[in-house]
Amino acid sequence: MSHGQQDKLKQQLWTGDYYNEGVTHDHDGFFDKLKEECGVFGVFGHPEAAHLSYYGLHALQHRGQESGGICTSDEEEFNYHRGMGLVKEVFTNERLQELKGSNAIAHVRYSTSGESKLANAQPLVFKYREGDLAVATNGNLHNAMDIRKRLERLGSIFQTSSDTEVVAHLIARSPYDQLEDAVREALREVKGAYAFLFMTRGKLIAARDPNGLRPFVMGKLGDAILFASESCAFDAVGAEYIRDVQPGELLVLDQNGMREERFASKQRQSVCAMEYIYFARPDSDVDGINIHSSRKRMGKVLAAEAFVDADVVTGVPDSSISAAIGFAEQTGIPYELGLIKNRYTGRTFIQPSQELREQGVKMKLSAVRKVVEGKRVVMIDDSIVRGTTSLRIVNLLREAGAKEVHVRISSPPFMNPCFYGIDTPSRNELIAAQKSVEEIRQAINADSIHFLSKEGLLEAIGSDSTDKNSGMCLACFDNDYPTMADTSEGKSSEGLVESTK
């Protein structure tokens, strides 16, 4: 391969010296799984706030691997550090020692809006008339670009391409002196999905979007109050889960304690179903529902909907393991580790040769030949995006000697892009939006394929909400976007696409 060809290949697959450093491409060169969102962690009133945040971010690392940051406050000044890479790469013990203060907000990022660069790493820190302000969020504001253009015409100068900065400018322009009043006003202007943490030198504010699209939980460690995107972060620091932050709720913590307020009335509850299917860690609880248990139920319902006579059941690591166990328990077909994930390739291997690149799937995933050889295999996966990953894995199992490969997906067909903090391709790249189920089967070289029904998914999640879709956002499956009043009156998802560019 010529140097020119190598440079072109490098531009297509990665932007740094090694794979996944400062990723800006639309999807992984080897896998087309959905990209994680972001993770936030907050501490109010603990002398080791920075160290707690460090461990909390470790537990949330699956939600973003591009950058990490921690900002602390000791009521006199801010101390903060941000960097590109994994949490363990961004922070050293010496760096953490410099982050003095008993209050902190922290963030791990995967960019769903804005470029992957240090300027966009969070928490974002600003100077404004009331002093220092730090902001961290998980989610996406689909009207951020419209607000940004309006503010720029009024003279605002933006330093980042992240939509989080839009909220900071709205706060800075607010006529209110009290931060909570300015935040309340700003959040009433933005539309989308979010879990926000705001911090000044003596105050911390937490807010969740009115639909509850993004998960957000509150915990306690001694007298300190903690916030996190997932409850697994509390387990990592020995904290106790208290409750979920409610949709539209504004929690204000300062020297007088915590005040529970609202910035908006609760709208139709619409927790992102993909949190249960794929994103959240199995040991987390989202809105009181354990992720592992719900995924096992997905596998059981899937087995009832689409039984196939086979010899072994295997799951695509890691998010599909729970569903595979449920499928095996329901059918009585033995569950086996037919696929093994190599956990040390993501940020370490140097630019491979063309030959190795073509075998890239085997760098991340291996089939256990002695388990699948000569067997009829049921392969459980959580979703199909473009279909390229499913084809590679099916072929991997066939190369290892599988006699038949039956694919079962523990979610409905993924047919619509997300605008609420998940990085998804456009509709014309989504295989389920372009092909029938039979055409998908042929495209991925499977002997059979079945997707979990929408009704089966809701049954498996088990929410007791009386809101539409049992309080779940299923827009990626049914095109019903909860923040749009009526998608039939010129407010289709295609219109949302334009507003987010």
From TrEMBL:
It catalyses: 5-phospho-beta-D-ribosylamine + L-glutamate + diphosphate = 5-phospho-alpha-D-ribose 1-diphosphate + L-glutamine + H2O. Pathway: Purine metabolism; IMP biosynthesis via de novo pathway; N(1)-(5-phospho-D-ribosyl)glycinamide from 5-phospho-alpha-D-ribose 1-diphosphate: step 1/2. The active site is at C38 (nucleophile). The keyword 4Fe-4S applies. It is an enzyme of class 2 (transferase). One of its GO terms (molecular function) is amidophosphoribosyltransferase activity. CDD domains: GPATase_N, PRTases_typeI. InterPro entries: GATase_2_dom (IPR017932), Ntn_hydrolases_N (IPR029055), PRTase-like (IPR029057), PRTase_dom (IPR000836), PurF (IPR005854), PurF_N (IPR035584). Mg(2+) binds at S319, D381, D382. [4Fe-4S] cluster binds at C272, C418, C473, C476. It comes from the Bacteria. Pfam families: GATase_7 (PF13537), Pribosyltran (PF00156). The keyword Cell wall biogenesis/degradation does not apply. Residues 38-256 form the Glutamine amidotransferase type-2 domain. Binds 1 [4Fe-4S] cluster per subunit. Binds 1 Mg(2+) ion per subunit. Its EC number is 2.4.2.14. Its cofactor is [4Fe-4S] cluster; Mg(2+). PROSITE patterns: GATASE_TYPE_2 (PS51278). Coiled coil: none annotated. In the C-terminal section; belongs to the purine/pyrimidine phosphoribosyltransferase family. Catalyzes the formation of phosphoribosylamine from phosphoribosylpyrophosphate (PRPP) and glutamine. This is Amidophosphoribosyltransferase. It comes from Marinicrinis lubricantis. The gene is purF.
